[in-house]
Specification:
By secondary structure, this protein is α/β, with parallel strands linked by helices. The chain has a domain at 18-202 and 241-269 and 302-321: Rossmann fold. It is 34% helix and 16% strand. It contains 9 helices and 13 strands. It has helices spanning 40-51, 106-109, 113-134, 170-190, 214-224, 243-254, 274-285, 309-314, 324-338; strands at residues 31-35, 55-60, 79-83, 96-99, 137-143, 193-199, 202-203, 228-231, 237-239, 241-242, 264-266, 271-273, 291-294. A 7-stranded parallel sheet has the order 3-2-1-4-5-6-11, sandwiched between helices. The protein has a two-stranded parallel sheet with strand order 7-10. Helix 4 (170-190) links the parallel strand 5 and strand 6 (193-199). The longest helix is centred in the middle third of the chain and has 22 residues, at 113-134. The relative contact order is 0.14. The structure holds nicotinamide-adenine-dinucleotide (NAD) and uridine-5'-diphosphate.
Length: 339
C-alpha cells in the first residue's frame, strides 16, 4: 500500500492508493456498493457481481428504479437493498463503488431538473467522500451526453463536446460533466482511485415501459399496436449497445490498474437512424403499427457514435458482441412477458 496516497508521483500526477483500506478479500470476494442499483443498468450489474460471489449493496431511492428489477436477488445472502438518496451522505465500508444513481431518460431527468443536477453533483461529492474515507475504488457512470450535439464524429474521449449550458438537457449533461470534474479533482487532489466510463445509448430487458427512450418506446408501441412515434424526420442517428456488453465493459474498467482513470467510452459503434430502428422493430415484432412523425425535442443531438478504440486498448480488447437484432429480440421478449 502507498505510504501517502496523495503524494505526487515522479510523473507529477497525483498518485492513488494501491489497495482498499485494509479490508481482507476472501477468495477475491469484494464488498461493492452500487448506487442506482435498482435501475435498468444497475440491476444487471448487481446480478453480475452477486453471481461472481461479491457482497453487493444496492442503494436506490426508487425514483426511476424498482424493487422488482432486483426481485431475483432479494433474499440472496450476498445481496442487500438500501433505500437512500445519494444527495445525502451515506456511510458504509466497501471496496468498490459503482455510481449509477441518476435518472437517464430525458422525460425523467427533465421532470425535476434541479434534483437531477443535485443527484449528479451532490451524489458524486457524497460518493467520492465515501470512497476517499474508506479508500475504495469508485466508477462513475458518465454519458455520451457530455459530448452534447457533437461537432466531431465519431466521438473520441479527447473531444470536449458541444453542450448547451442553459437548455432542457443541460441539467443532465452539465450535471454529468461536473461529476466528471469532481472525479478528476478527487483523483488529482486526494488520490482517490477513480474510473470514469462514458456510456452511449444502452438498451435491454428491465428498461421501464414508460421510460421514454427510443428503444423501449418503439417496442412498447409496436407490441401494443399503437403508432410508432419518430421525433423529427427520423434521420438522426444513435448507436445502441446491449446491456450485457456494457456491464462487461464496466467490470473490466473497474478492474484496471489505478493509473487508468478514463474517461473511456463504452458503446456500440454500429450506427442507425431512428427510421431504420423503427422499421427493424416493426419487423421483429410482426407489428401492424403505423410509423408516425412528431416534433423533434429541443437540443436533440443529430448524430452519435462512439470511438471505442481506447476501451478496446485498455480493457483487454473489449468490444460489444451483441448485434442489434439479437439484443432487440431479447428486449422484445422481456416486454412481451411483462407488459
Ligand atoms: P435508470 O433510471 O433505470 O437508473 C437510475 C437509477 O438511479 C434508478 O434506479 C433511480 O431510482 C436511481 N436514482 C435516481 N436518483 C437517485 C438518487 N438521488 N438517489 C438514489 N438513487 C437514485 O437509468 P439507467 O439507464 O439504468 O442509467 C444508469 C446510469 O447510467 C445513470 O447514471 C445514467 O446517467 C447512466 N447512463 C445510462 C445510459 C443508457 O443508455 N441507459 C446512457 C448513458 C449513461
Ligand atoms: N426518439 C424518437 N421517438 C421516441 C423516443 C425518442 O424518435 O419515441 C428519438 C429522440 O428524439 C432521439 C433518439 O430517438 O433522437 C434517441 O432518444 P433517446 O431518448 O432514447 O436517447 P438520447 O436522445 O438521450 O440519445
Amino acid at each position: 500500500m502507498t505510504e501517502n496516497p496523495t503524494a505526487p508521483t515522479t510523473t507529477g500526477v497525483y498518485g492513488a492508493a494501491e489497495s482498499s483500506g485494509g479490508r481482507s478479500y476472501r477468495n477475491g470476494m469484494k464488498r461493492i456498493l452500487i448506487t442506482g442499483g435498482a435501475g435498468f443498468i444497475g440491476s444487471h450489474l448487481c446480478e453480475r457481481l452477486v453471481a461472481e460471489g461479491h457482497d453487493v449493496i444496492c442503494l436506490d431511492n426508487y425514483f426511476t428504479g424498482r424493487k422488482t428489477n432486483v426481485r431475483e436477488l432479494i433474499g440472496h445472502h450476498n445481496f442487500e437493498l438500501v433505500r437512500h438518496d445519494v444527495t445525502t451522505p451515506y456511510f458504509v465500508e466497501v471496496d468498490e463503488v459503482y455510481n449509477l444513481a441518476c435518472p437517464a431518460s430525458p422525460i425523467h431527468y427533465q421532470y425535476n431538473p434541479i434534483k437531477t443536477t443535485k443527484t449528479s453533483v451532490m451524489g458524486a461529492i457524497n460518493m467520492l467522500g465515501l470512497a476517499k474515507r474508506v479508500k475504495a475504488r469508485i466508477l462513475q457512470a458518465s454519458t455520451s451526453e457530455v459530448y452534447g450535439d457533437p461537432a466531431v464524429h465519431p466521438q473520441p474521449e479527447d473531444y470536449w463536446g458541444n453542450v448547451n449550458p442553459i437548455g432542457l438537457r443541460s441539467c443532465y449533461d452539465e450535471g454529468k460533466r461536473c461529476a466528471e470534474t469532481l472525479f478528476m479533482d478527487y483523483y488529482r487532489q486526494n488520490g482517490v482511485r477513480i474510473k470514469i466510463v462514458r456510456i452511449f445509448n444502452t438498451y435491454g430487458p428491465r428498461m421501464s415501459a414508460n421510460d421514454g427512450r427510443v428503444v423501449s418506446n418503439f417496442i412498447v408501441q409496436a407490441l401494443r399496436g399503437e403508432d410508432i412515434t419518430i421525433y423529427g424526420d427520423g434521420s438522426q442517428t444513435r448507436s445502441f449497445q446491449y446491456v450485457d456488453d456494457l456491464v462487461e465493459g464496466m467490470v473490466r474498467m473497474m478492474n484496471t490498474p489505478d493509473d487508468i482513470t478514463g474517461p473511456v467510452n463504452l458503446g456500440n459503434p454500429d450506427e442507425f437512424t431512428m427510421l431504420s430502428l423503427a422499421s427493424l422493430i416493426k419487423e421483429l415484432t410482426g407489428s401492424s403499427s403505423e410509423i408516425v412523425f412528431r416534433p423533434l425535442p429541443a437540443d436533440d443531438p443529430r448524430q452519435r457514435k462512439p470511438d471505442i478504440s481506447l476501451a478496446h486498448e485498455l480493457l483487454d480488447q473489449w468490444q460489444p458482441v451483441t448485434p442489434l437484432r439479437e439484443g432487440l429480440l431479447k428486449t422484445i421478449d422481456y416486454f412481451d412477458k411483462t407488459l
